[in-house]
Backbone:
């Protein structure tokens, strides 16, 4: 072991005992400030693992893992228990990381239903492995991310799905009125490990870093109590997986740029905008061939299409036609939204209207933060009205009998004749929810006072 590496380990030992500062990174025998290190290329240092275990980096990683929460892995250790576990075991873990002998545990297989049917396989690492992956991610990202394509938006600092949708909208407005919508079949399950590691090795000299990344890829999957080896894929669920996917697909981005295409990529969601259907067919054929031969990935021919942008959705948004396309919420996203609202407003839940609105509020605020990016406020107004109708309908169901309904309406200043007519109506709750009596008894302001947010007021400029 070289003197510099030994010095770093001595400093780490002092830090663990609270007697010293975290060690700095080294580069060809020369200590470098953190500010300089963040802009250098990974290939310029052989001591990335020393940077990974620096105290500041570890503190940030721990905060991120605790913020993200998540379920425990196969060892059952929870995020809440992680700090205590690290306090007791960190010297041993640190030594394994620095010596290149750390072995990740298999990930826990979890299947999440997809909105359009089928399931998505997630691999949940142990919280310790998530912590280590996060620490590695924080070291690799500042030097890798700036080299990625400007047309790549997924899982990158300072970039978002909204930016990807806005860029797609710009291409359409410029006259690229046909879209090549590529669907990579089970991308995260099919990534070739050797090809991915070959790309990483071109820019990472630290053999321990290469070894641990390979170990995370090959850690295996536990399902039904049995561990299966993983010979391909980057299981979704770990902090490193998004960066590794961007590294793998960077070659595709460069090829699309080399050909001069207008494209947007968010993780494995790829759309290319062209000016004619004929051009789209050519692009579909040639890019499919590139993906299959060069990246060893598979394009789902049934889901990949050449079509008008207004007939397709991208990241749950679609676009209106014409010279000035507007962003709108994709129909399937609205259908999923209504399904969830129906679940939250079921009378059989047996909860008060106040608790129901509290549950709705949590869901609506998150939904609004994303879909408030649409440019069709009338749709949001209609959804607001529909939600309030659902709530009025629930209230009507909870009152059950006619006499109870009459008394409840009268207690809310509804006249005797209107209250009697409404309470004795043969119509169902959904029809009654639009009645003058219920709208007067429970105006929009009533639900607002209970904390129900409105979707229209969440529009993002």
Residues:
């Amino acid at each position: 072991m070289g003197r510099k590496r030994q010095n770093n380990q001595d400093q780490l030992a002092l830090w663990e005992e609270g007697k010293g500062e975290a060690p700095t990174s080294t580069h060809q025998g020369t200590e470098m400030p953190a500010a300089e290190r963040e802009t250098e290329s990974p290939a310029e240092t052989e001591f990335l693992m020393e940077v990974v275990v620096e105290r500041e980096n570890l503190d940030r990683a721990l905060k991120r893992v605790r913020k993200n929460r998540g379920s425990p892995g196969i060892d059952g250790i929870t995020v809440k228990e992680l700090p205590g576990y690290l306090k007791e075991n960190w010297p041993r873990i640190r030594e394994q990381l620095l010596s290149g002998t750390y072995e990740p545990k298999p990930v826990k297989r979890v299947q999440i239903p997809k909105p359009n049917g089928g399931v998505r396989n997630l691999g949940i690492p142990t919280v310790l492995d998530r912590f280590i992956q996060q620490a590695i991610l924080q070291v690799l990202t500042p030097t890798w991310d700036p080299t990625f394509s400007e047309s790549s938006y997924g899982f990158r600092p300072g970039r978002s799905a909204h930016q990807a949708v806005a860029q797609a909208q710009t291409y359409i407005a410029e006259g690229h009125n046909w879209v090549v919508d590529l669907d990579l079949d089970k991308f995260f399950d099919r990534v070739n490990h050797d090809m991915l590691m070959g790309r990483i090795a071109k820019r990472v000299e630290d053999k321990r870093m290469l070894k641990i990344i390979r170990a995370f890829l090959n850690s295996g999957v536990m399902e039904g109590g049995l561990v299966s080896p993983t010979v391909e894929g980057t299981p979704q669920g770990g902090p490193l997986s998004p960066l590794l996917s961007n590294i793998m697909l960077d070659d595709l981005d460069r090829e699309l740029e080399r050909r001069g295409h207008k494209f947007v990529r968010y993780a494995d969601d790829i759309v290319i905008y062209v000016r004619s259907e004929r051009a789209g067919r050519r692009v579909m054929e040639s890019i499919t061939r590139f993906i299959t031969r060069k990246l060893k990935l598979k394009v789902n021919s049934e889901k990949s299409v050449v079509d008008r942008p207004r007939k397709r959705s991208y990241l749950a948004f679609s676009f209106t036609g014409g010279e000035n396309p507007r962003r709108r919420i994709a129909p399937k996203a609205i259908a999923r939204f209504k399904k969830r609202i129906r679940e939250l407003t079921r009378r059989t839940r047996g909860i008060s209207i106040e608790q129901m609105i509290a549950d709705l509020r949590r869901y609506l605020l998150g939904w609004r933060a994303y879909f408030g990016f649409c440019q069709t406020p009338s749709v949001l107004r209609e959804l607001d009205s529909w939600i309030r109708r659902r709530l009025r309908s629930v209230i009507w169901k909870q009152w059950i009998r006619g006499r109870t309904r009459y008394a409840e309406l009268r207690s809310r200043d509804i006249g005797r004749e209107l209250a009697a007519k409404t309470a004795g109506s043969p119509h169902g709750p959904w029809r009654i929810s639009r009645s003058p009596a219920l709208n007067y008894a429970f105006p929009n302001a009533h639900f607002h006072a209970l904390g129900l947010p409105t979707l229209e007021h969440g529009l993002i400029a």
